Amino acid sequence: MTSEPAIRAALPTEAGAIRNVVRAAYAKWVPLIGREPRPMQADYVQALTVHRFDVIGPEGGPVALIETEDRGDHLWIENIAVAPELQGHGLGHRLLAHAEVLARQLALPELKLLLNKKFEANLRLYRSVGFEVEREEPFLDGITVYMRRRLPG
Predict the structure, then answer these.
(1) How many CA atoms lie within 13 A of 54 on its CB side?
(2) DSSP letter at 138?
(3) CA angle, corner 95, sides to 6 and 66, nearest 5?
(4) What is the pTM of this model?
(5) pLDDT digits (tens, 9 = 90+) for 117-142
(6) CB hemisphere CA count around 75 (13 angstroms)
(7) Domains assigned to the chain
């Protein structure tokens, strides 16, 4: 019986590897929305200095990540990305469960995130773990969906 790889804090030296995972994970959405999603354009050297990054994978070689920020009244999930060859293997669910643990450690009552309405598979994933739509807003040529998950207890 093998154990699942641990979720660990990202290292500042992993900015390039994180960028590569994000670009690969989001590439499938480019034809759907006609542009690169914003996470593909982020400066991960800078992001690593202002947000928390937790990753799955060996040092220097993360294969999945979650980027979060304590916003005082909720834990903001800025980004979740899983390498394409590992999507559908439960890593996204593990990272979302990890975000809940982080929120509880910070005594925050809910998780929040946003995504493009055209990312239907992601909408289904978030709904399956208890997220609900908070609101929708036009953005560029699409709709941004803001979601929240209130934590029980």
Answers:
(1) 19
(2) E
(3) 100
(4) 0.94
(5) 999 999 999 999 999 999 999 988 88
(6) 26
(7) 7-113 (3.40.630.30)
